[in-house]
Amino acid sequence: MAGFEEVNHYFRRAARIMDLSSHVERMLITPFREVKVDVSISMDSGELGTFIGYRVQHDRSRGPMKGGLRYHPTLDMDEALGLASLMTWKTAIVNLPYGGAKGGIAVDPSKISERELERLTRRFVEQIHDIIGPQTDIPAPDMGTNAQVMAWIMDEYSKIHGFSPAVVTGKPVDLFGSKGREEATGRGVVFAMEEFLKDVGGGEIKGKRCAIQGFGNVGSWTARFLHEAGARIVAVSDQQGGIRNPEGLDIPKLLEHARHAKTVVGFPGVDSISNAELLLLDVDVVIPAALGGVLTEKNAKDVRARYLVEAANAPTTPEADEILTRRGIQILPDVYANAGGVTVSYFEWTQNIQQFTWEEAKIAAELKRYMSEAYATLSRVARERRVPLRTAAFIVAIGRVGRATTLRGL
Q1: What's the domain count of the chain?
Q2: Is the pLDDT of residue 394 over 90?
Q3: Could you say which of 309, 337, 365 is where a domain stops?
Q4: Calpha distance 189→92 (Å, rounded)
Q5: Torsion from C-alpha of 390, 396, 400, 401, nearest 10 degrees
Q6: Does a structural domain hold residue 79?
């Protein structure tokens, strides 16, 4: 979970180094808009179901606000605030013409029917349609939502405002979505990891022993691309538990198993491990790709990996970040590492605006270029300022957002 104060901890650390005035600091932290709505629908049983929806729009100085819609029972305003601000800094780091937003509904989508999910989504759009739009705020999939949910949002919004495919990204390819969007975050993680390892003296991905916590969209695609790059994936996990094979997992067969079983558990020829144990394995690279807050001051001292690649949002608490940094563990921060998803969302939005389709090869090449250029900037700032990559990332982002805010006179 990325709480607002947790994200602001990193913001303030960078702001002190930049010697920002308290006025500018307060202006950049304060969200543009916070919305909390009642989302009531008729359930299949005939009873009235009432849910709470959120949308936080953090900053609009660099362009339309961008960020996912999360359907999860623990979602609250603090989490939406934290994730929205993280999106502001993330889009600035990879130099996209966006600000940050985030939101969703406090609901467990696995506990309601698909018909109820559709009604809930359409009702939510009715509640927030006047504050989202292709030039205002562009939602995308996040935890608990997918391309189908985005299709419902596009359809409902278009009923009110006219045909508007660019109102959301992450849509099905057959409904104005982009090729390469589904795998974008995982592919971006691997592109980022390539740059990171070369820069910090870790060499190439080939042969690296990796453990991945989370085998949903991000974790499974990361595993696939790392396997193709020659890495040895020795452990993976999901909500049901984890599996381990020190010799390396057969990723193509595991992907097929997970597709049918809906879990990695039960894959033959492996040892069982817990999600907590996976993070502490003796590997080259550990990759949290699930929920936030999994690395804390309680377990950070026991991490044995040389490198931490944050594919999830906020997997490392500020206390754990300090412990890991003191121990010399190199961290590739989430605010850059998982930016592949929003980058290809930008490509999808651009295609919708232009009404022109890009081929997948172009999308992959452009994603690699964006991730490479962003890393080069982070690395340079980290060396010049003698700070960790996370702090460098926030310095870059704050500088870009601050300049845009000043130039616009906001």
Answers
A1: 2
A2: yes
A3: 337
A4: 17
A5: 20
A6: yes
281-303 residue pLDDT tens: 999 999 999 988 999 999 999 99
Q: Is 102 an annotated catalytic residue?
A: yes
Kindly name the residue from 66, 90, 102, 368 that is annotated as catalytic.
Answer: 102
Distance CA 376, CA 380 (A): 6
Mark 221-238 as b/e (b = at least 16 C-beta within 10 Å): bbbbbbbeeebbbbbbbb
- 48 and 188 housed in the same domain: no
Tens of pLDDT, residue by residue over 221-261, are 999 999 999 999 999 999 999 999 999 999 999 999 999 99
Can you point out the beta strands (E) in 15-120? 33-42, 48-59, 65-71, 99-105
CA angle 383–201–394, rounded 5-degree value: 35
The pLDDT assigned to 2 comes to 64
CATH of the domain at 101: 3.40.50.10860
Q: What is the model's pTM? A: 0.94
Same structural domain for residues 51 and 160?
Answer: yes
